[in-house]
Protein backbone atom coordinates (compact mmCIF):
# COMPACT_ATOMS: atom_id res chain seq x y z
CA UNK A 1 0.00 0.00 0.00
CA UNK A 2 2.83 2.42 0.87
CA UNK A 3 4.57 1.75 -2.46
CA UNK A 4 1.31 2.27 -4.41
CA UNK A 5 0.47 5.56 -2.69
CA UNK A 6 4.03 6.86 -2.94
CA UNK A 7 4.19 5.97 -6.65
CA UNK A 8 0.96 7.85 -7.36
CA UNK A 9 2.09 10.93 -5.47
CA UNK A 10 5.53 10.98 -7.07
CA UNK A 11 4.01 10.45 -10.54
CA UNK A 12 1.68 13.44 -10.16
CA UNK A 13 2.67 16.43 -12.31
CA UNK A 14 3.49 19.24 -9.84
CA UNK A 15 2.86 22.07 -12.33
CA UNK A 16 0.08 23.81 -14.20
CA UNK A 17 1.96 25.09 -17.26
CA UNK A 18 0.88 27.26 -20.22
CA UNK A 19 2.32 29.63 -22.84
CA UNK A 20 1.75 33.34 -22.24
CA UNK A 21 1.14 34.61 -25.77
CA UNK A 22 1.37 38.27 -24.71
CA UNK A 23 4.75 37.91 -22.94
CA UNK A 24 6.02 35.18 -25.32
CA UNK A 25 7.20 32.88 -22.55
CA UNK A 26 5.98 29.85 -20.62
CA UNK A 27 4.45 30.25 -17.17
CA UNK A 28 3.43 27.73 -14.54
CA UNK A 29 1.92 27.37 -11.11
CA UNK A 30 4.20 25.25 -8.95
CA UNK A 31 1.92 23.10 -6.81
CA UNK A 32 4.81 22.26 -4.47
CA UNK A 33 6.07 25.77 -3.74
CA UNK A 34 2.82 27.71 -4.47
CA UNK A 35 4.80 30.09 -6.68
CA UNK A 36 3.95 31.51 -10.09
CA UNK A 37 7.05 30.90 -12.26
CA UNK A 38 8.19 31.98 -15.72
CA UNK A 39 10.66 30.41 -18.16
CA UNK A 40 13.27 32.24 -20.24
CA UNK A 41 14.48 31.23 -23.71
CA UNK A 42 17.26 29.15 -22.17
CA UNK A 43 14.70 26.96 -20.45
CA UNK A 44 15.46 28.30 -16.96
CA UNK A 45 12.58 28.78 -14.54
CA UNK A 46 12.45 31.65 -12.07
CA UNK A 47 9.74 32.65 -9.56
CA UNK A 48 7.53 35.69 -10.21
CA UNK A 49 5.71 35.78 -6.87
CA UNK A 50 4.03 33.49 -4.36
CA UNK A 51 0.32 32.77 -4.69
CA UNK A 52 -2.44 32.40 -2.14
CA UNK A 53 -4.38 29.18 -2.78
CA UNK A 54 -8.11 29.41 -2.08
CA UNK A 55 -10.66 26.56 -2.04
CA UNK A 56 -8.07 24.20 -3.51
CA UNK A 57 -7.43 20.59 -2.56
CA UNK A 58 -4.22 19.38 -4.21
CA UNK A 59 -5.41 15.76 -4.21
CA UNK A 60 -8.21 16.77 -6.62
CA UNK A 61 -5.71 17.39 -9.40
CA UNK A 62 -5.35 14.43 -11.83
CA UNK A 63 -2.00 12.71 -12.32
CA UNK A 64 -1.33 14.33 -15.71
CA UNK A 65 -2.10 18.03 -15.99
CA UNK A 66 -2.77 19.57 -19.40
CA UNK A 67 -4.57 22.80 -18.49
CA UNK A 68 -6.54 24.88 -20.97
CA UNK A 69 -6.22 28.62 -20.34
CA UNK A 70 -8.29 31.64 -21.36
CA UNK A 71 -8.02 35.38 -20.75
CA UNK A 72 -11.14 36.29 -18.80
CA UNK A 73 -11.88 39.79 -17.55
CA UNK A 74 -8.26 40.60 -16.85
CA UNK A 75 -7.61 37.25 -15.18
CA UNK A 76 -6.55 33.80 -16.34
CA UNK A 77 -9.29 31.16 -16.47
CA UNK A 78 -7.91 27.61 -16.19
CA UNK A 79 -9.87 24.46 -17.05
CA UNK A 80 -8.63 20.92 -16.33
CA UNK A 81 -9.83 18.54 -19.11
CA UNK A 82 -11.91 15.56 -18.07
CA UNK A 83 -12.58 16.84 -14.56
CA UNK A 84 -14.95 19.80 -14.82
CA UNK A 85 -12.55 21.72 -12.56
CA UNK A 86 -12.33 25.47 -13.22
CA UNK A 87 -9.83 27.86 -11.62
CA UNK A 88 -9.15 31.61 -11.67
CA UNK A 89 -5.64 33.03 -11.48
CA UNK A 90 -5.63 36.68 -10.40
CA UNK A 91 -2.05 37.87 -10.97
CA UNK A 92 -2.71 41.29 -9.50
CA UNK A 93 -4.07 39.96 -6.19
CA UNK A 94 -1.72 36.95 -6.39
CA UNK A 95 -4.59 34.53 -5.80
CA UNK A 96 -5.27 31.10 -7.29
CA UNK A 97 -8.87 30.01 -6.65
CA UNK A 98 -11.04 27.07 -7.58
CA UNK A 99 -14.49 28.35 -8.58
CA UNK A 100 -16.41 25.19 -9.53
CA UNK A 101 -18.28 22.74 -7.32
CA UNK A 102 -18.38 19.82 -9.75
CA UNK A 103 -17.15 16.30 -9.19
CA UNK A 104 -14.74 14.33 -11.35
CA UNK A 105 -16.72 13.08 -14.34
CA UNK A 106 -14.26 11.69 -16.88
CA UNK A 107 -16.55 11.95 -19.93
CA UNK A 108 -15.09 15.13 -21.44
CA UNK A 109 -11.41 14.45 -21.95
CA UNK A 110 -10.13 16.21 -25.08
CA UNK A 111 -13.29 18.34 -25.35
CA UNK A 112 -13.31 21.53 -27.40
CA UNK A 113 -13.43 24.37 -24.87
CA UNK A 114 -13.75 28.05 -25.76
CA UNK A 115 -14.81 31.45 -24.43
CA UNK A 116 -17.73 33.23 -26.11
CA UNK A 117 -19.46 36.33 -24.70
CA UNK A 118 -17.60 35.88 -21.37
CA UNK A 119 -19.00 32.33 -21.09
CA UNK A 120 -16.91 29.15 -20.96
CA UNK A 121 -18.27 26.41 -23.24
CA UNK A 122 -17.30 22.76 -23.66
CA UNK A 123 -18.32 20.66 -26.68
CA UNK A 124 -17.86 16.91 -27.00
CA UNK A 125 -14.91 15.00 -25.61
CA UNK A 126 -14.11 11.38 -24.87
CA UNK A 127 -14.68 9.06 -21.92
CA UNK A 128 -15.94 5.56 -21.21
CA UNK A 129 -14.52 4.39 -24.57
CA UNK A 130 -16.71 6.73 -26.60
CA UNK A 131 -16.73 10.30 -27.86
CA UNK A 132 -19.80 12.52 -27.61
CA UNK A 133 -21.24 15.84 -28.80
CA UNK A 134 -22.61 17.11 -25.48
CA UNK A 135 -22.61 20.92 -25.29
CA UNK A 136 -22.25 22.42 -21.81
CA UNK A 137 -21.44 25.83 -20.39
CA UNK A 138 -20.05 26.87 -17.03
CA UNK A 139 -22.60 28.78 -14.94
CA UNK A 140 -20.49 31.21 -12.89
CA UNK A 141 -23.43 32.02 -10.61
CA UNK A 142 -24.16 28.39 -9.67
CA UNK A 143 -20.52 27.31 -10.12
CA UNK A 144 -21.63 24.26 -12.10
CA UNK A 145 -21.63 22.99 -15.68
CA UNK A 146 -25.05 23.10 -17.37
CA UNK A 147 -26.22 21.24 -20.49
CA UNK A 148 -27.32 23.14 -23.61
CA UNK A 149 -29.16 22.04 -26.74
CA UNK A 150 -26.61 21.14 -29.43
CA UNK A 151 -28.90 20.19 -32.30
CA UNK A 152 -28.80 16.44 -31.72
CA UNK A 153 -31.80 15.98 -33.98
CA UNK A 154 -29.06 15.16 -36.51
CA UNK A 155 -27.18 11.81 -36.46
CA UNK A 156 -25.01 11.18 -33.43
CA UNK A 157 -21.60 12.88 -33.63
CA UNK A 158 -18.42 12.58 -31.66
CA UNK A 159 -16.40 15.82 -31.35
CA UNK A 160 -12.86 16.22 -30.02
CA UNK A 161 -10.56 19.22 -29.77
CA UNK A 162 -8.05 17.56 -32.11
CA UNK A 163 -10.54 17.82 -34.99
CA UNK A 164 -12.57 20.95 -34.22
CA UNK A 165 -12.27 24.66 -33.54
CA UNK A 166 -14.21 27.89 -33.04
CA UNK A 167 -14.42 30.08 -36.15
CA UNK A 168 -13.30 33.70 -35.88
CA UNK A 169 -16.91 34.96 -36.07
CA UNK A 170 -17.46 33.21 -32.70
CA UNK A 171 -20.79 31.87 -33.99
CA UNK A 172 -19.73 28.64 -35.71
CA UNK A 173 -17.68 25.55 -34.89
CA UNK A 174 -15.84 23.65 -37.60
CA UNK A 175 -15.45 19.93 -36.94
CA UNK A 176 -14.45 16.70 -38.59
CA UNK A 177 -17.11 14.53 -37.00
CA UNK A 178 -17.06 10.82 -36.33
CA UNK A 179 -20.39 9.04 -36.56
CA UNK A 180 -22.01 7.00 -33.82
CA UNK A 181 -19.64 8.25 -31.14
CA UNK A 182 -16.88 5.92 -32.29
CA UNK A 183 -13.25 6.91 -32.75
CA UNK A 184 -12.38 8.36 -36.15
CA UNK A 185 -10.82 5.86 -38.53
CA UNK A 186 -8.38 7.76 -40.72
CA UNK A 187 -8.61 5.05 -43.36
CA UNK A 188 -12.27 5.75 -44.09
CA UNK A 189 -14.33 8.71 -45.22
CA UNK A 190 -15.05 11.30 -42.52
CA UNK A 191 -17.44 14.25 -42.66
CA UNK A 192 -16.74 17.98 -42.30
CA UNK A 193 -19.45 19.90 -40.46
CA UNK A 194 -20.28 23.42 -39.32
CA UNK A 195 -22.22 23.84 -36.07
CA UNK A 196 -24.17 27.09 -35.69
CA UNK A 197 -24.18 28.18 -32.05
CA UNK A 198 -26.93 30.73 -32.76
CA UNK A 199 -29.28 28.28 -34.48
CA UNK A 200 -28.04 25.16 -32.66
CA UNK A 201 -27.91 23.16 -35.88
CA UNK A 202 -25.38 21.12 -37.86
CA UNK A 203 -24.62 21.66 -41.55
CA UNK A 204 -22.67 19.09 -43.51
CA UNK A 205 -20.11 20.67 -45.85
CA UNK A 206 -19.04 17.38 -47.37
CA UNK A 207 -16.95 14.24 -47.03
CA UNK A 208 -13.20 14.09 -46.42
CA UNK A 209 -11.61 11.13 -48.16
CA UNK A 210 -8.46 10.01 -46.39
CA UNK A 211 -7.11 8.57 -49.65
CA UNK A 212 -6.77 12.14 -50.93
CA UNK A 213 -4.89 13.10 -47.76
CA UNK A 214 -2.71 9.99 -48.00
CA UNK A 215 -1.70 10.83 -51.57
CA UNK A 216 -0.36 14.17 -50.29
CA UNK A 217 1.49 12.57 -47.39
CA UNK A 218 -0.99 13.75 -44.73
CA UNK A 219 -1.36 10.89 -42.28
CA UNK A 220 -4.02 12.31 -39.96
CA UNK A 221 -7.12 14.51 -40.05
CA UNK A 222 -6.12 16.20 -36.77
CA UNK A 223 -5.87 19.97 -37.13
CA UNK A 224 -5.64 23.26 -35.26
CA UNK A 225 -7.99 26.04 -36.37
CA UNK A 226 -6.07 29.32 -36.64
CA UNK A 227 -7.72 32.32 -38.30
CA UNK A 228 -10.37 30.03 -39.92
CA UNK A 229 -7.63 27.89 -41.51
CA UNK A 230 -7.06 24.24 -40.61
CA UNK A 231 -3.36 23.66 -39.87
CA UNK A 232 -2.92 19.90 -40.09
CA UNK A 233 -0.68 18.10 -37.61
CA UNK A 234 2.04 17.09 -40.04
CA UNK A 235 5.67 17.69 -39.07
CA UNK A 236 7.80 19.68 -41.55
CA UNK A 237 5.05 19.66 -44.20
CA UNK A 238 3.01 22.81 -43.59
CA UNK A 239 -0.38 21.68 -44.92
CA UNK A 240 -3.45 23.80 -44.21
CA UNK A 241 -7.08 23.62 -45.28
CA UNK A 242 -9.41 26.45 -46.28
CA UNK A 243 -13.00 25.32 -45.57
CA UNK A 244 -14.49 28.43 -47.19
CA UNK A 245 -12.87 27.81 -50.59
CA UNK A 246 -12.63 24.00 -50.23
CA UNK A 247 -8.88 23.92 -50.76
CA UNK A 248 -5.83 22.17 -49.31
CA UNK A 249 -2.73 24.38 -49.41
CA UNK A 250 0.94 23.62 -48.79
CA UNK A 251 3.36 26.19 -47.40
CA UNK A 252 6.42 26.46 -49.68
CA UNK A 253 8.06 29.54 -48.12
CA UNK A 254 11.53 29.89 -46.69
CA UNK A 255 10.73 29.04 -43.05
CA UNK A 256 10.53 25.27 -43.50
CA UNK A 257 11.08 24.54 -39.80
CA UNK A 258 8.21 26.80 -38.76
CA UNK A 259 6.04 23.65 -38.74
CA UNK A 260 8.62 21.33 -37.11
CA UNK A 261 7.70 18.23 -35.11
CA UNK A 262 8.19 19.87 -31.69
CA UNK A 263 6.34 23.08 -32.53
CA UNK A 264 3.05 24.16 -31.00
CA UNK A 265 1.09 26.74 -33.00
CA UNK A 266 -0.77 29.72 -31.53
CA UNK A 267 -2.72 32.53 -33.17
CA UNK A 268 -3.48 36.15 -32.29
CA UNK A 269 -4.42 39.24 -34.32
CA UNK A 270 -3.55 37.75 -37.70
CA UNK A 271 -0.19 36.32 -36.57
CA UNK A 272 0.66 32.61 -36.27
CA UNK A 273 3.28 31.80 -33.61
CA UNK A 274 5.42 28.67 -33.68
CA UNK A 275 6.75 27.76 -30.22
CA UNK A 276 9.38 25.02 -30.10
CA UNK A 277 10.88 23.34 -27.04
CA UNK A 278 14.21 21.60 -27.56
CA UNK A 279 15.59 19.14 -25.02
CA UNK A 280 18.88 17.36 -24.42
CA UNK A 281 20.36 15.67 -21.39
CA UNK A 282 21.37 18.87 -19.61
CA UNK A 283 19.72 21.78 -21.43
CA UNK A 284 16.33 22.97 -22.57
CA UNK A 285 15.71 25.92 -24.90
CA UNK A 286 12.66 27.77 -26.18
CA UNK A 287 12.34 29.20 -29.68
CA UNK A 288 9.45 31.49 -30.63
CA UNK A 289 8.92 32.33 -34.30
CA UNK A 290 6.06 34.13 -36.03
CA UNK A 291 4.50 34.59 -39.47
CA UNK A 292 1.55 36.73 -40.55
CA UNK A 293 -1.15 34.41 -41.80
CA UNK A 294 -1.33 36.49 -45.00
CA UNK A 295 2.35 35.70 -45.62
CA UNK A 296 1.72 31.99 -45.05
CA UNK A 297 -1.12 32.06 -47.60
CA UNK A 298 0.87 34.06 -50.16
CA UNK A 299 3.67 31.48 -49.91
CA UNK A 300 1.37 28.46 -50.23
CA UNK A 301 0.27 26.54 -53.29
CA UNK A 302 -2.97 24.70 -54.03
CA UNK A 303 -2.52 20.92 -53.86
CA UNK A 304 -6.06 19.51 -53.66
CA UNK A 305 -9.66 19.68 -52.53
CA UNK A 306 -10.43 19.66 -48.83
CA UNK A 307 -13.75 17.83 -49.13
CA UNK A 308 -16.27 16.45 -51.62
CA UNK A 309 -19.72 18.11 -51.52
CA UNK A 310 -22.69 15.76 -50.94
CA UNK A 311 -23.40 13.78 -54.09
CA UNK A 312 -26.60 13.70 -56.17
CA UNK A 313 -27.78 17.05 -54.86
CA UNK A 314 -29.57 17.87 -58.13
CA UNK A 315 -31.22 14.45 -58.22
CA UNK A 316 -32.43 14.92 -54.65
CA UNK A 317 -33.96 18.30 -55.52
CA UNK A 318 -35.79 16.81 -58.51
CA UNK A 319 -36.98 13.90 -56.37
CA UNK A 320 -38.33 16.22 -53.69
CA UNK A 321 -39.97 18.41 -56.34
CA UNK A 322 -41.75 15.47 -57.96
CA UNK A 323 -42.76 14.16 -54.55
CA UNK A 324 -44.11 17.58 -53.61
CA UNK A 325 -46.20 17.81 -56.78
CA UNK A 326 -47.65 14.34 -56.19
CA UNK A 327 -48.41 15.27 -52.59
CA UNK A 328 -50.26 18.43 -53.70
CA UNK A 329 -52.31 16.45 -56.22
CA UNK A 330 -53.17 13.89 -53.55
CA UNK A 331 -54.22 16.59 -51.08
CA UNK A 332 -56.39 18.40 -53.63
CA UNK A 333 -58.16 15.18 -54.58
CA UNK A 334 -58.62 14.09 -51.00
CA UNK A 335 -60.18 17.32 -49.70
CA UNK A 336 -62.80 19.14 -51.71
CA UNK A 337 -62.95 22.29 -49.66
CA UNK A 338 -60.19 24.28 -48.03
CA UNK A 339 -62.18 24.54 -44.78
CA UNK A 340 -62.28 20.76 -44.50
CA UNK A 341 -58.56 20.68 -45.30
CA UNK A 342 -57.81 23.05 -42.44
CA UNK A 343 -60.06 21.18 -40.05
CA UNK A 344 -58.47 17.86 -40.92
CA UNK A 345 -54.97 19.21 -40.31
CA UNK A 346 -55.77 21.51 -37.42
CA UNK A 347 -53.30 20.88 -34.66
CA UNK A 348 -51.39 18.32 -36.76
CA UNK A 349 -47.98 19.89 -36.24
CA UNK A 350 -48.61 20.95 -32.69
CA UNK A 351 -49.15 17.50 -31.15
CA UNK A 352 -46.22 16.22 -33.15
CA UNK A 353 -43.96 18.78 -31.48
CA UNK A 354 -45.62 18.02 -28.15
CA UNK A 355 -44.23 14.49 -28.36
CA UNK A 356 -40.75 16.02 -28.13
CA UNK A 357 -41.41 17.38 -24.65
CA UNK A 358 -39.15 15.85 -22.02
CA UNK A 359 -40.32 13.02 -19.85
CA UNK A 360 -42.28 14.34 -16.90
CA UNK A 361 -43.58 17.50 -18.66
CA UNK A 362 -47.23 16.53 -18.11
CA UNK A 363 -46.72 15.95 -14.36
CA UNK A 364 -44.75 19.19 -14.13
CA UNK A 365 -47.47 21.28 -15.83
CA UNK A 366 -50.27 19.47 -13.96
CA UNK A 367 -48.64 20.37 -10.64
CA UNK A 368 -48.76 24.09 -11.46
CA UNK A 369 -52.27 23.80 -12.90
CA UNK A 370 -53.50 22.36 -9.61
CA UNK A 371 -51.49 24.71 -7.37
CA UNK A 372 -51.39 27.93 -9.44
CA UNK A 373 -48.68 29.86 -11.28
CA UNK A 374 -47.66 31.64 -8.06
CA UNK A 375 -46.46 28.33 -6.60
CA UNK A 376 -42.75 27.41 -6.42
CA UNK A 377 -41.12 24.01 -6.09
CA UNK A 378 -37.83 23.07 -4.47
CA UNK A 379 -35.05 21.09 -6.11
CA UNK A 380 -36.13 17.89 -4.35
CA UNK A 381 -39.77 18.39 -5.39
CA UNK A 382 -38.60 19.03 -8.95
CA UNK A 383 -36.68 15.73 -8.98
CA UNK A 384 -39.74 13.91 -7.59
CA UNK A 385 -41.90 15.25 -10.44
CA UNK A 386 -39.32 13.99 -12.95
CA UNK A 387 -39.06 10.67 -11.05
CA UNK A 388 -35.33 11.14 -10.51
CA UNK A 389 -35.18 10.68 -6.75
CA UNK A 390 -33.29 7.38 -6.97
CA UNK A 391 -30.66 8.68 -9.37
CA UNK A 392 -27.31 10.20 -8.37
CA UNK A 393 -27.34 13.89 -7.39
CA UNK A 394 -25.20 14.98 -10.35
CA UNK A 395 -27.40 12.99 -12.73
CA UNK A 396 -30.50 14.66 -11.28
CA UNK A 397 -28.94 18.08 -11.83
CA UNK A 398 -28.16 17.34 -15.49
CA UNK A 399 -31.68 15.98 -16.13
CA UNK A 400 -33.25 19.07 -14.55
CA UNK A 401 -31.07 21.40 -16.58
CA UNK A 402 -31.85 19.62 -19.85
CA UNK A 403 -35.56 19.45 -18.99
CA UNK A 404 -35.74 23.21 -18.37
CA UNK A 405 -33.81 23.98 -21.57
CA UNK A 406 -36.09 21.86 -23.79
CA UNK A 407 -39.33 23.04 -22.15
CA UNK A 408 -38.25 26.69 -22.41
CA UNK A 409 -37.43 26.19 -26.10
CA UNK A 410 -40.91 24.71 -26.57
CA UNK A 411 -42.70 27.71 -25.05
CA UNK A 412 -40.42 30.11 -26.91
CA UNK A 413 -41.20 28.48 -30.27
CA UNK A 414 -44.98 28.04 -29.91
CA UNK A 415 -45.99 30.79 -27.50
CA UNK A 416 -43.13 33.32 -27.93
CA UNK A 417 -42.56 33.21 -24.18
CA UNK A 418 -38.94 33.49 -23.09
CA UNK A 419 -37.63 31.78 -19.94
CA UNK A 420 -41.03 30.24 -19.13
CA UNK A 421 -39.41 28.10 -16.43
CA UNK A 422 -37.19 30.17 -14.15
CA UNK A 423 -35.16 29.86 -10.97
CA UNK A 424 -34.92 32.11 -7.90
CA UNK A 425 -32.96 31.87 -4.66
CA UNK A 426 -34.84 30.72 -1.58
CA UNK A 427 -35.40 33.51 0.92
CA UNK A 428 -34.36 31.52 4.01
CA UNK A 429 -31.13 30.23 2.47
CA UNK A 430 -29.68 31.93 -0.63
CA UNK A 431 -27.55 28.88 -1.44
CA UNK A 432 -30.62 26.93 -2.51
CA UNK A 433 -33.00 27.66 -5.35
CA UNK A 434 -36.61 27.03 -6.26
CA UNK A 435 -38.41 26.88 -9.56
CA UNK A 436 -41.49 28.58 -10.98
CA UNK A 437 -43.43 28.98 -14.23
CA UNK A 438 -44.68 32.18 -15.84
CA UNK A 439 -48.47 32.60 -15.70
CA UNK A 440 -48.76 33.16 -19.46
CA UNK A 441 -46.93 29.88 -20.09
CA UNK A 442 -49.27 27.97 -17.79
CA UNK A 443 -52.31 29.64 -19.41
CA UNK A 444 -50.97 28.62 -22.83
CA UNK A 445 -50.57 25.00 -21.70
CA UNK A 446 -54.12 24.88 -20.28
CA UNK A 447 -55.66 26.60 -23.31
CA UNK A 448 -54.03 24.13 -25.71
CA UNK A 449 -55.02 21.18 -23.50
CA UNK A 450 -51.48 20.12 -22.68
CA UNK A 451 -52.81 19.33 -19.20
Chart the SSEs and their pairings.
Layout: H1 2-11, E1 15-20, E2 25-30, E3 35-39, E4 45-50, E5 52-54, E6 68-72, E7 75-80, E8 85-90, E9 95-98, E10 112-116, E11 119-127, E12 130-139, E13 144-148, E14 157-158, E15 164-166, E16 172-179, E17 190-196, E18 201-208, H2 210-216, E19 223-226, E20 229-232, E21 239-242, E22 247-251, E23 263-268, E24 271-279, E25 284-292, H3 293-298, E26 300-304, H4 313-334, H5 338-345, H6 349-354, H7 361-371, E27 377-378, H8 379-385, H9 393-415, E28 421-425, E29 433-437, H10 439-447
Parallel strand pairs: 5-9
Antiparallel strand pairs: 1-2, 2-3, 3-4, 6-7, 7-8, 8-9, 10-11, 11-12, 12-13, 14-16, 15-16, 16-17, 17-18, 19-20, 20-21, 21-22, 22-26, 23-24, 24-25, 27-29, 28-29
Largest sheet: 5 strands, mixed
* Portion in beta strands: 35-45%
Q: Figure out the total of helices.
A: 10
Widest β-sheet, arrangement of strands: 5-9-8-7-6
Using DSSP, what is the number of strands? 29
Radius of gyration (CA) equals 27 Å
The helix content, as a percent range, equals 10-25%
Structural class comes to alpha+beta
Quote the distance from N terminus to C terminus.
59 Å
Mean pLDDT across the residues is 83
Low-confidence runs of at least 5 consecutive residues: 4-10, 338-355
The best one-word shape is flat
Amino acid sequence: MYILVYTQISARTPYLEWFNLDKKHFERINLNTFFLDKQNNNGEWSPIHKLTFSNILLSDFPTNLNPITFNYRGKLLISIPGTGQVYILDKIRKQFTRIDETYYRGYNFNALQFIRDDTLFSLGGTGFWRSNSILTYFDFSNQEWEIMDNGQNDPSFGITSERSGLMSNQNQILAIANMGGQEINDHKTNSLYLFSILHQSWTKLGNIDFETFHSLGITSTKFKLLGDFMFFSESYKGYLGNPKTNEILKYVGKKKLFFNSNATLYYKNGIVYSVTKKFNETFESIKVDSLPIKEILSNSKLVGKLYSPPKNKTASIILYLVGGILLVIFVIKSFSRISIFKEKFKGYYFPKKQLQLPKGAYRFLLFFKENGANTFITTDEFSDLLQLSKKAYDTQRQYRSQFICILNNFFCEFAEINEAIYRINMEDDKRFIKYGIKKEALDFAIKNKLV
